[in-house]
Design goal:
Layout: H1 7-17, E1 22-30, E2 33-39, H2 42-54, H3 58-65, E3 69-71, H4 83-91, E4 96-104, E5 107-116, H5 124-147, H6 164-177, H7 181-194, H8 199-207
Antiparallel strand pairs: 1-2, 1-5, 3-4, 4-5
Length: 217
């Protein structure tokens, strides 16, 4: 790789150095303002989208606890905190999932989601490598997320989910209802889930003023 700080290269580090099939990296700035800065492949992208739309999955558990979340055998393990996502991920042919916290100092700023087609644990050495890479890429990932707000930074095949419209829609909802960002984003997610739509689709309606949450609450 010529540029190890390029968005796609950050995900490639995990795939190259850890025995996994794919990876994605998500940076949290505030509720409703989370950017997936890279995905390694189509399945990683689908897993990312599922977690974003459902509001559940190992990413959210890691974000909540600050600890790694591991499911070495997705079909056999119990995962009561994310049952809908767990079933959907298994249907994609995923055998194991691993989410690692990314920190800048003591601040949890994102999560690296790794998946493997075959079930089985990572092992001690591979787990330590994953933690080390998560620390290594935290700074470049945060920088990429910050730059994503700039108009000239485009969504690309390996970074397809900067989700600017979701960020904008969350801000519009919190202004419409005079609520906090976390609640506004949760309402956006719930509305999308109840209607079988993606969060991005509903966000676009809000941004284009086809949907006003003052009229549906």
């Amino acid at each position: 790789m010529n540029d190890k700080t390029a968005p796609g290269s950050l995900c490639e580090l995990f795939v190259e150095l850890v025995p996994v099939s794919g990876a994605s990296i998500t940076v949290f700035r505030q509720p409703g303002a989370q950017s997936t800065i890279c995905v390694s492949d189509g399945i990683a992208e689908e897993l990312d989208q599922l977690q974003f739309d459902l509001g559940e999955g190992p990413r959210w558990e890691t974000a909540r606890t600050g600890l790694a979340t591991v499911s070495g055998d997705l079909r056999a393990d119990r995962h009561p905190a994310w049952p809908v996502f767990g079933t959907a991920a298994a249907q994609l042919g995923v055998g194991a999932l691993f989410s690692f916290p990314m920190r800048l100092g003591v601040h949890l700023m994102g999560v690296a989601d790794l998946y493997r087609r075959d079930a089985g644990p990572l092992g001690e050495d591979a787990t330590q490598r994953a933690f080390n890479i998560a620390r290594q890429v935290a700074g470049p990932a945060a920088e990429r997320a910050s730059r994503s707000a700039e108009a000239e930074v485009l969504e690309t095949p390996d970074a397809p989910a900067l989700r600017r419209e979701v960020h904008q829609a969350t801000g519009m909802i919190l202004m419409q209802l005079e609520i906090e960002a976390a609640e506004a984003f949760s309402m956006l997610q719930a509305h999308a889930f109840a209607r079988g739509r993606t969060v991005e689709d509903v966000a676009r309606d809000v941004v284009l003023r086809r949907l006003d949450f003052r009229e549906i609450t």
